[in-house]
Amino acid sequence: MAMTAEAPTVAPTTAAEPPTTPQPTGLEPTAPPPGTFGAPWIRSTGDLAWKLIGIGLAVALVFYVVSLVQVVFVALFLALVFTTVLLPLGDLYDRVMPRGLAMAASLLTAVLAVGGLVTYVVSSVVSRWEELATEFGTGLTDLAQLVTEIPLLAGLGTPRKWLTDGGAWLQSNAGDYMATAAASAGSIAEGVTAVVLAIFCTVFFLTQGSRMWRWALSLVPADRHDRWESAADAGWTAFSGFTRGMFFVALADGVLAGIFLTVVGVPLALPLSVVVFLGAFIPMIGPVAAIVISAFVALAAKGPVLALVVLIGMVVVAQIDANVLQPLITGKQVSLHPVVMALVVAAGSVLGGLLGAVVAVPLTAVTWAVFSKLRKTAQGATPAHEAD
Fold first, then answer.
1. By CB neighbour count within 10 A (0-12 exposed, 13-18 middle, 19+ buried), where does 162 fall?
2. Residue 20 scores a pLDDT above 80
């Protein structure tokens, strides 16, 4: 009987499977990318600190460059102010005459208006000069008599002694005053240069402003023209709003001063209100000069009592200007909070003196308007970019 051998059954072999790698579930901590260290808040704080340092260096560089070409900067700033004021008037004239002639007529109108106001003030003072001089001498005599009757001031001597001591003090300090006068003459020359250059630039800004802007825009890549155009429009709107706000504040100051001086009976009340109006355009110095001039006229005409009343009243008007009108009117025009405006003016005066106080608010307003516009443009373009 034949026996058949059965083939051994061999189990099928399978290839060795690689070990499976567990998939992350999103709950495991991920390793920081190479080159980073510390907690996330440390890295974000460091990035913010470097950005603030960069901004501070940029601002310091701007102030340094401005200090080197201060006359040019002042001229350019004045030219932009003049252009903002005259452009609406030029557009009005443009309806009945050619564009170049309309802009020239607007500049001539502004010169005649300012010249007429100054001429009116000067002629009003000259017409009553002799009367004012006589009353001023009487007012000084009454003031000296009043001072000598005060027990605490009786030991200061007589008015004749005051004049003698004052003359001797002026003679002993004549050299210092000559040096100060020479320095002031240099400053006046720089101021005249800045005004002349500003008028020269204003003529071209009014007549060829659009052409100059198109040339500047051609230096920017074509795909960014719209963004630069919108940012420039926002900055110009903020700057023109500041200029309009300053005009309304100055007009309100002149009206308030004129009403107050008329009520208390100060002569030349209307010319003095014009002085207050013009002085409001010069921060810090203009209002103080208007107060001093008004007090002297009141002293000359009505004596020390009315002069003191005028001094107090004009200080109140100046405080209304600084603390109410400018934050409300100018702040609304430039879209800045009154607290921000006060801090900006204080910082500008510390960093740049009078010039810093003048340009602090408009520069801040323009910077904020441009930044806000660019941020809105970037936010509006983000969804379209993600959709692509």
1. middle
2. no
Whole-angstrom Cα distance, residue 292 to residue 275?
11
pLDDT band at 126 (very low <50, low <70, confident <90, very high): confident
Distance, CA of 53 to CA of 58 (rounded, Å): 9
DSSP assignment of 57-76 equals HHHHHHHHHHHHTHHHHHHH
User: Looking at residue 27, what DSSP letter applies?
Assistant: -
Phi, psi of 5, deg, nearest 5: -85, 125
* Of 296, 208, 241, residue with least CA distance to 84: 241
- For residue 4, CA distances in Å to 1, 7, 11, 299 come to 10, 9, 21, 146
Give tens-digit pLDDT for 140-197. 666 666 666 666 555 565 556 665 666 666 666 656 656 665 565 667 777 788 888 9
Name residue 339's amino acid: V
- pLDDT, residue 99, reads 78
pLDDT tens readout for residues 34-62: 555 557 778 788 788 887 788 778 777 77
**DSSP 3-state assignment of 261?**
helix
Q: Please enumerate in sequence order all residues whose Cβ is within 8 A of that of 238, keeping only pairs 6 or more positions apart, or say none.
A: 334, 335, 362, 365, 366, 368, 369
Separation of alpha carbons 296 and 279, rounded Å: 16
Let me know: does 242 contact 361? Beta carbons within 8 Å.
Answer: yes
- 221 — alpha (psi -120 to 50), left (phi > 0) or beta? beta
The b/e string for 187-203 (b: 16+ C-beta within 10 A; e otherwise) is eeeeeeebeebbbebbb
Tokens of 2: 């034949």
- Highest mean pLDDT of the ranges 18-32, 68-82, 158-172, 311-325: 68-82
Instruction: Report in angstroms the alpha-carbon separations of 325 from 47, 314, 317, 333, 336.
Output: 40, 15, 10, 12, 14
Q: What is the reported pTM?
A: 0.68
| Cβ(237)–Cβ(333) below 8 Å | no
Contacts of 235 (CB under 8 A, 6+ apart): 366, 369, 370
